[in-house]
Design a protein that fits this description.
Blueprint: E1 5-9, E2 22-25, E3 34-38, H1 51-62, E4 67-71, E5 76-81, H2 88-108, E6 113-117, H3 123-136, H4 147-150, E7 156-160, H5 166-187, H6 195-209, E8 212-216, H7 218-223, H8 227-233, E9 241-247, E10 258-262, E11 264-268, H9 289-303, E12 310-319, E13 331-333, E14 339-341, H10 349-359, E15 367-372, H11 376-382, E16 387-391, H12 395-408, E17 412-414, E18 432-433, H13 441-450, E19 457-461, E20 467-468, E21 478-479, H14 484-492
Parallel strand pairs: 3-5, 3-6, 6-7, 10-12, 10-15, 11-12, 14-18, 15-19, 16-17
Antiparallel strand pairs: 1-2, 1-7, 4-5, 8-9, 9-12, 13-14, 16-19, 20-21
Helix pairs in contact: 2-3, 3-5, 5-9, 6-9, 8-10, 9-14, 10-13, 12-14
Length: 494
């Protein structure tokens, strides 16, 4: 039997507790609930299956079943068939999805611990299966009075593999934990997470993982003349914040920092350009998903001690129609000094991000990646199946990010970024309008932001996959934490 079992403790949904400690154990015990990745040629003898059980499993696989469950009374054995004809990327995603389904079965049978037996010696697939189980097992039951009753039974997973490296499992555990922290932030309701509270959450992440966090408050924001952020905040009773996060290890390989910028609109009513409801405003607590992604990515990078200098910037406010809310037709002077004719207050994300992108110039960055739930046009174009990306960064960054997107199945769909789209943003009264026209809305939003950059830049519109109304395998309903795994893979492989 394979010798090594490494235990992965799933992050707990209890407030204040996240167990990410990894433990090693000896050989698999006879009563351990097993999850087995296998093929049509698998030798089942090491699992201790009877002749009858072995024949039953093989017959089921030959008849097209990909998953078989054996109830041995003292334990369950879950057998998952893998198709070697699929591409490596497809196999990883198949395993993640299978893992999510297996987590459901474990919870259905009230199983607390399960062991993945890698008898095929395919550690990457075993790791993907565990990843899918962990992500699919996520819950946000913080505000349920019956949360102890409703909580899933599955608490830990072990991977039993000869070839799996401890470092790889550590990295997966860190990335998984960070992704679930991003989900937690996105799932928080607006009355529990305003801009000040979001910045406090970043400070907590920085303290835990070991990166610096400076929160610029309203007086400093005014001193910096961040006109876009201040304008959006005018309709709110809560103060804006601008969070500056930095991880700079002594062994950083890059001379210039990578800068991550995330939209932090903690709730978006559309302002005076009020959104219709339902199905438009109802989920707008998720409009800070880009900010959550950036904070969680910094957490993962620092926790893993990756040798890379990374800075995160998150402008934060809510967008409401109260008080002295900015109105269509207003002329806003941005931090850069450029003026914007604001014609739609529901195009507020680009207003606050423009100030953050201008602020990023002080770092002379190697690359700036900005993440935002920016446009319904991006979601309409490709749905929740991927992330819309555009910009002027060199091909070496595009290729690496596209590869990382494929590795973690957070795929990138690159849109054109032609300068002809700038004509749609021209204003007769100011340097620019904050909206384009009836077409190419995702692209004109990207071109608007591009006007505030002087460095290699990529804009990621995550409006489609950041918050989904129904479960999609391990991407559970609500906040998905999209982008964290993409960035972590990117920085790990630099």
């Amino acid at each position: 039997m394979i010798r090594k079992a490494i235990f992965l403790h799933l992050p707990s949904s209890k407030v204040g507790k996240r167990m990410t400690t990894l433990k090693k154990a000896g050989a698999v015990r006879p009563n351990d609930n097993l999850i087995v990745l296998c093929s049509l040629r698998t030798d089942f003898k090491p699992l201790g299956l009877s002749t009858t059980e072995t024949e039953y499993v093989k017959t089921e696989f030959e008849h097209g079943r990909h998953s078989v469950i054996l109830n041995q009374f003292s334990r369950y054995v879950f057998l998952q068939l893998i198709d070697p004809k699929k591409s490596p990327e497809q196999l990883l995603e198949i395993c993640r999805k299978a893992g999510s389904t297996l987590a459901d079965r474990c919870n259905e049978y009230k199983i607390k611990e399960a062991v993945i037996a890698d008898i095929e010696d395919k550690p990457a697939l075993a790791l993907a299966l565990a990843e899918g189980m962990a992500l699919g097992n996520y819950q946000f039951v913080k505000y349920k009075s019956t949360k102890e009753k409703d909580r899933h039974s599955l608490e830990s997973i072990a991977i039993n593999s000869r070839k799996l490296k401890d470092r790889d499992l550590d990295m997966m555990n860190i990335c998984m934990d960070a992704t679930l922290r991003a989900r937690d932030l996105v799932n928080e309701p607006a009355n529990k997470l305003n801009a000040v509270q979001l910045s406090a959450a970043f400070e907590k992440l920085g303290k835990e993982a070991g990166f610096k966090v400076e929160v610029l408050k309203e007086a400093k924001i005014r001193a910096l003349k961040m006109g876009g952020l201040l304008a959006v905040n005018m309709g709110s009773v809560d103060a804006p914040t601008f969070s500056v996060m930095e991880y700079k290890p002594a062994n950083a390989k890059n001379k210039k920092p990578y800068v991550l910028v995330g939209k932090g609109v903690t709730y978006d009513t559309g302002g005076l350009s009020l959104k219709p409801t339902p199905n438009s405003m109802d989920m707008m607590k998720c409009d800070m998903a880009g900010g959550a992604l950036v904070g969680a990515a910094l957490y993962a990078i620092a926790k893993a001690k990756l040798p890379v200098h990374v800075i995160g910037l998150v402008p934060a406010t809510d967008n409401r129609p109260g008080g002295n809310a900015f109105a269509p037709g207003d002329i806003i002077t941005m931090m850069s000094g450029q003026t914007v004719e604001m014609l739609n207050s529901d195009a507020e994300g680009r207003m606050i991000l423009a100030d953050a992108l201008h602020y990023a110039k002080r770092y002379d960055p190697e690359l700036v990646c900005e993440f935002s739930t920016l446009t319904g046009a991006a979601a309409a174009a490709i749905g929740s199946a991927g992330i819309v990306v555009m910009g002027d960064a060199p091909d070496r960054f595009r290729v690496r990010l596209r590869t990382s997107g494929n590795n973690v199945h957070e795929r990138l769909a690159e849109f054109p970024f032609w300068e002809e789209y700038d004509d749609m943003l021209k204003s007769e009264l100011a340097d620019m309008k904050n909206i384009g026209g009836a077409v190419a809305g995702a692209i004109t939003a990207g071109r608007f932001l591009y006007k505030y950059t002087t460095y290699p830049y990529l804009h990621f519109d995550i409006a489609g996959p950041a918050f989904i109304p129904a479960r999609d395998s391990y991407r559970i309903k609500g906040g998905t934490g999209v982008g964290v795994r993409l960035l972590f893979d990117f920085f790990r492989n630099l």
